[in-house]
Design brief:
six-stranded antiparallel β-barrel, mainly beta, YaeB-like fold, Elongation Factor Tu (Ef-tu), domain 3, 2 domains, single chain
């Protein structure tokens, strides 16, 4: 079996660190699914405007395609210290590195870069190849009585996030018109605490960084929550 991608994701997540662990957790994260020329046809999307959400079937491409797989993994949900079977997880390192994500769809757009489907609430790395799009059908896809095993709902304790004066000035420079919704995006990502579960073993480490778009975001953790220190252009972008 050989599958060819129908398009490529363009998202703010240019590095794996900082990507939310599930879709829909960061609503400010908007992305484009840019259709490859052979599939950039409006008629292929006829009727999709009646659906609010879609399933995106994609390939874990970064470091996964040739990495192989193991029968057990250590999910972040269990703090990276307990093992479960790979087929009881959503780990990217699988026999076939395929993932799926339910995200909000905001309609088609055609511009200088071609035809694209606008998406919101994504948890997808920039450059992710997409294999298929399917409409999300609530009466069949939403199963309220289903059991979720070790993947219990996260506690609704949201870490307070505030921005230093320097970071506020940086935001004015790097997102002057607010189109990227950078302030909301950064705050929503950090409120979920993107650090690996094992970081509680290193309480002395307080400063962290991640990359969004072509920007470096630096923050520090303290008893009051999280303070964003700076938002500056990446040197290599």
């Amino acid at each position: 079996m050989t599958f060819n991608p129908i398009g490529i994701i363009r998202s703010p997540y240019t590095d794996k660190f900082g990507i939310p662990r599930q879709p829909g957790l960061v609503t400010a994260a908007e992305a484009r699914l840019e259709l490859l020329p052979a599939f950039a046809r409006e008629e292929a999307f006829k009727g999709l405007d009646g659906f609010s959400h879609v399933w995106i079937l994609f390939v874990f491409h970064a470091d996964c395609l040739d990495a192989g797989w193991k029968p057990t993994v250590r999910p972040p949900r269990l703090g990276g210290r307990q093992t479960v079977g790979v087929f009881a997880s959503r780990a990217p390192y699988r026999p076939n590195p395929i993932g799926l994500s339910a995200v909000e769809q905001l309609g088609l757009i055609r511009d200088a870069r071609g035809l694209a489907l606008r998406l919101r609430g994504v948890d997808l790395l920039d450059g992710t190849p997409v294999l298929d799009i399917k409409p999300y059908v609530p009466y069949a896809d939403a199963l309220p009585s289903a059991r979720s095993g070790f993947a219990t709902p996260p506690e609704m304790t949201i870490t307070p996030v505030h921005f230093s004066a320097a970071a506020e000035r940086d935001l004015v420079l790097v997102d002057p018109d607010g189109q990227r919704q950078l302030r909301q995006l950064i705050a929503q990502i950090l409120a979920q605490d993107p650090r690996p579960g094992y970081m509680n073993r290193y309480p002395q480490r307080r400063e962290f960084g991640m990359q969004l778009y072509n920007l470096n975001v630096r923050w520090r953790c303290d008893a009051a929550g999280i303070e964003v220190v700076s938002v500056t252009p990446s040197a290599d972008k």
